[in-house]
Write a structure and sequence with these properties.
The complex is a heterodimer. Chain A has twelve helices and no strands. Chain A is mainly alpha-helical. Chain A has two domains: 165 residues, no CATH class; 126 residues. In chain A, helix 10 packs antiparallel against helix 12. Chain B is globular, with a radius of gyration of 22 Å. In chain B, helix 6 packs antiparallel against helix 7 and helix 6 packs parallel to helix 8. Classes of the chains: A mainly alpha, B mainly alpha. Chains A and B meet through helix 1, helix 2, helix 3, helix 4 and helix 5 of A and helix 1, helix 2, helix 3, helix 4 and helix 5 of B.
Chain lengths: 312, 223
């Protein structure tokens, strides 16, 4: 049976290759910093379960030290010349599109296959495993037809990842910070503060506090999942559901979506907001958040109104 | 109250634009110390969480495929496809992607599309080409805004589609929590109540995409 362990090995080998190729890239003045950073990430993927909790903690400290002291950078250029790309696009055009679509298509098919046929792969991780298989198939098909130099996919992949830089592990770091916050009881303290700040006797005031609290606390934590239990315990359950007899399904479902409006507006949700800015090579790292605010604020207002209208 | 120091460090760190990895580590250490944990326990807790959430970072394995295809001109091909399609305007293109992303997420197919898989190689270059087709003097700032909107459209489609799917994590979380308070609610009810917001998100973001199209079609004053 294929498990997530297979995907971690694949990712580990991929990062290890980026590290080796990075160390050999003399055009990058910070090549050893890059090599160490991707090498440590490879170690985490390949052997994380054997390092122990403290060992993994030291590994994270090393990653932070390398990135925090500015030891990683990227070599200038490296992409194929535009004229060459245009000429190749003309001859391979639709084949390239087909290969690009193999990844989502296999992810889709595999998700269903692994759920219906038990024993092939861990059904809980079906999509991630299928995604990895899709990558391997797309790579094999692309290599067979295009016949590039053998290292080209890894070299180009490394170039793209170097462009993202340390932001590549930001989502994982923030998820880990959330775990420390939970351990320290940050959620309960914030919930208590918000609970005392609500105007008494106003249904609309309580609804407003719940919706705004979900969005604001999600912005702080970067994740509506972390905000939801706290806001439910502080406002949703005692006031909206118990005192005002609101429909718990509406309060919960739309409250969560009010939190998602917060996700659109915070750098703490790095994988949605900061990583794409790096990936698309935007000059402003907050460029994606900037354009999302115009959608998030009116939608937050709509969600608060929906709770007020539908729950009571 | 003292444990809130970690939140202050995060906010200050992001505002002052320190390296976010350093800010996160400082916040974790300060929060843990404020809660009375010793430093090795904090490092171990952070390390355990980092190891448990490795799946967040495996999406980068798509980059060798994307790199190969881009070296052979995938972005140019995506652009030329848009150039040949009559009526494929910036607003219509991104609105179609929004609808597709919402619909796929609503049936649980959240990882099928995404920033590395679809936005960078396909959606962003297509959107840029559509904007160019309507305005041959597109400025760098306008180009940047079109790309940012491509990423934003993926996020909006994902967030306000996925909660319609029954087995998504957030619905299981809601069900579990409410059960703890003595309310037994079928996941279907949460799914249904996600639909009004999904429609509102489509209308609001779709309206903004139309306005983006109009704004981009005007020549920059500098030109």
């Amino acid at each position: 049976m294929i498990t997530l362990g297979f995907v971690y090995v694949l990712a580990g080998l991929c990062f290890a290759a980026f590290a080796v190729l990075g160390a050999r890239d003399r055009t990058n003045p910070k090549r050893f910093g890059n090599a160490a950073f991707w090498g440590l990430l490879a170690l985490s993927m390949l052997a994380g379960d054997r390092l122990g909790d403290f060992g993994n903690g030291l590994l994270v400290l090393a990653l932070v030290a390398i990135a925090g002291t500015g030891q990683i950078g990227r070599a200038p250029g490296g992409e194929a010349p535009a004229a060459e790309q245009a000429a190749r696009a003309a001859s391979h055009g639709n084949f390239l599109l087909l290969v690009a679509l193999i990844i989502p298509a296999v992810a889709l098919a595999g998700t269903f296959l692994f759920k219906w046929v038990p024993g092939l792969a861990d059904p809980k991780q079906a999509t991630l495993i299928s995604l990895a298989i899709g990558v391997l198939i797309a790579l094999a098909v692309g290599m067979a037809r295009l016949k590039p130099p053998p290292l080209l996919p890894l070299q180009q992949g490394r170039r793209l990842l170097d462009a993202v830089g340390w932001a590549a592990i930001l989502p994982q770091m923030l998820a880990s910070l959330g775990a420390v916050f939970a351990l320290a009881g940050v959620g309960e303290v914030v919930g208590g503060l918000i609970g005392t700040a609500i105007p008494q006797g106003s249904l609309f005031g309580a609804t407003l506090a719940f919706g705004l609290g979900m969005a604001l606390f999600t912005m702080v934590m970067g994740n509506a999942f972390a905000a939801f239990p706290v806001m439910l315990a502080a406002v949703g359950m005692p006031l909206l559901i118990k005192q005002y007899d609101g429909d718990p399904a509406v309060v919960a479902a739309i409250g969560m979506l009010a939190g998602f409006c917060g996700t659109l507006m915070t750098p703490m949700a790095a994988n949605f907001n900061l990583v794409p800015a790096a990936l698309l090579e935007l000059r402003n790292p907050y460029g994606v958040i900037r354009v999302q605010i115009g959608t998030a604020l009116p939608l937050l207002a709509v969600n608060i109104l929906f709770i007020y209208l539908f729950a009571f | 109250m003292l444990v809130l120091i970690g939140i202050l460090i995060i906010i200050a760190g992001f505002l002052l634009r320190f390296n976010p990895l350093l800010v996160i580590m400082a916040s974790a250490l300060a929060t843990g110390l404020a809660a009375g944990l010793d430093i090795t326990a904090i490092i171990a807790a952070f390390g355990k969480a980092f190891n448990d959430t490795r799946y967040v970072s495996i999406v980068w394995i798509v980059l060798p495929v994307i790199g190969l295809l881009e070296a052979y001109g995938l972005q140019q091909h995506a652009r030329s496809l848009i150039g040949r399609m009559k009526g494929a305007t910036l607003g219509r293109l991104l609105t179609s992607y929004l609808l597709l992303r919402q619909a796929m997420s609503a049936v649980g197919l959240t990882s099928v599309a995404g920033h590395p898989q679809t936005v960078r190689p396909l959606v962003a270059p297509m959107a840029e080409a559509a904007a160019e087709a309507a305005n041959d003097t597109l400025t760098d700032d306008q180009r940047e805004e079109v790309k940012a909107f491509s990423a934003a459209t993926d996020n909006v489609g994902l967030f306000f589609g996925e909660d319609i799917f029954l087995a998504i994590g957030s619905i299981l979380l809601m069900k579990g929590l409410l059960e703890g308070y003595g309310y037994n609610i079928e996941p279907l009810h949460f799914s249904l109540w996600a639909i009004p917001t999904a429609i509102a998100a489509f209308l609001i973001h779709g309206f903004r995409l139309r306005r983006l199209e109009r704004r981009m079609a005007k020549r920059g004053d500098a030109a």
